[in-house]
Predict the structure.
Amino acid sequence: MQALIFENELLLKDVPVPEPAAGEVLVKILYSSICNTDLEIIKGYMGFRGVLGHEFVGRVITESHPLRGKTVVGEINCSCGKCYLCLSSRRTHCTNRLVTGIDGHQGVFAGFISLPAENLHIVPDSIPGPVAVFTEPLAAAVEIFEQLHMKPSKPVFIFGAGKLGMLVSMVARLQGFDYTTFDLIPEKTVFARSLGLNAKSLKELLPGEKAEVCIDCTGNAEGIKLALKHLWPRGTLVLKTTVADTAKPDLNSIVINEFTILGSRCGLFKPALNLLERNLVDPSPLISGEFAFTDILKAFESAKNPLNHKIIINHQL
Amino acid sequence: MQALIFENELLLKDVPVPEPAAGEVLVKILYSSICNTDLEIIKGYMGFRGVLGHEFVGRVITESHPLRGKTVVGEINCSCGKCYLCLSSRRTHCTNRLVTGIDGHQGVFAGFISLPAENLHIVPDSIPGPVAVFTEPLAAAVEIFEQLHMKPSKPVFIFGAGKLGMLVSMVARLQGFDYTTFDLIPEKTVFARSLGLNAKSLKELLPGEKAEVCIDCTGNAEGIKLALKHLWPRGTLVLKTTVADTAKPDLNSIVINEFTILGSRCGLFKPALNLLERNLVDPSPLISGEFAFTDILKAFESAKNPLNHKIIINHQL
């Protein structure tokens, strides 16, 4: 099968179809999409080498498996189920975990992927493939609400109207609180407002304006420092950004203001699928382009454009 | 009155007795003590200039005030009572606050101090003066338990067996969880164990040993990095350290491990006074020396010795 390999550079290569291990099933990839983490990996983040990609929707093709023929999405953390972390509701932090396309497990920018059956979720028929591919990043947005009790009466600022910032804003919109999504790039705030989101230019954010919760989805170090400046004392800064170039905030301000800094990563798929199925979140306007898998290198160039949101790869073309 | 002033250097000077403003009462200082924050201030932290000191026990001398003649301790944050933060149970973060001996308000290394009557707490007769002077730092230790729900079944690591680390350990001991207090200096862990605390040398801490909550009381940047290495994913690092030389942890590890970093500062006095009155915490073994106020410069030299814990100033000698 053809696969997109990262080995210091991105290469389309012919590699063997993976052999499912015990408990795994083989999935034919229908759609995949490019995440900022993929863009960070090709800058050196995680030191990953191999088949890239972790956002996908596919069809199970393993014969004799109950899931055969089903359209599925897959959680990206492959866990042991036995360690302290697995046994304390922290499977995504399993000490022995492999992470699809990020750490030690083949990714989804390929014809097929083999994954533990327990990682798969059946996609309801009402969710089109290019929408289902948003399950993974939407789950990462919902993870914030899984981790943090955000009170409906308190203001929330979301920094960054990129791929993840838009999904977080779409989920935040469903709550009662005042939320505002900030971005420096005027086209992005105009676009966010066109989707009914409460988006503003960062230039409109006054020095004294603060929120109970700030969520950093900027993907850069400066965004994190800015978010801390607009947090009420005892407020919480949610960090969603992992970057190859790491940011380092001033710890004294964290102590003096008794801030909470909360790191947030992958989420569980079920609540994200619920939001998509109920049509409470419609990510389809975030699709900025669709490329055939054979054009995936062009797709990556397109994904690097900061004005683009999600770039989808159609593996069936 | 004589007062210890910090103006680039420490000086004992003659200054006028303060005039109580509306709502304030005049307090004669009986005992005061030296905190690490005082030592950081004289290295440049907070850019403070004026009468230093914030830990004290005193006697109200304002005539015709209901507190007259009472022995009191005083909360250090002087708040407006009207701002958003005061009105949302965050008086210690009041946007208009002045902080005794730290930010804009005269400190306690003097003959007298004028403080808002609402900041004062009557000291029960059963608590001796040199013990009551621990109310402020003990309240800072109790603040951790006010902010964070620490589950009795989970392990807790406390880094640093200095003044604050010992008080935090004494409070932690009262809970059901396994706690361990670590320090690099053998004399400090031996001393902590002699008080019945579960203290170990940092050298005994294995690379894979981790806890649900790590509390940094080391007062230095390296301690914070070390504490993060010994935290379970989704665990909480409580930061107690404010240092002139600020530490900067790696944010990627916070996101990947979904750590919570919780800044923690001043606490409320009532629960600390309760612990002292009930004799559940006895800080008296932490008194490493007592100096007359006229010898306060010698007291500061003694406080700089890392093997010393609390240095008490007796203003009545």
About this structure: The first strand of chain A starts at residue 2 and ends at 7.
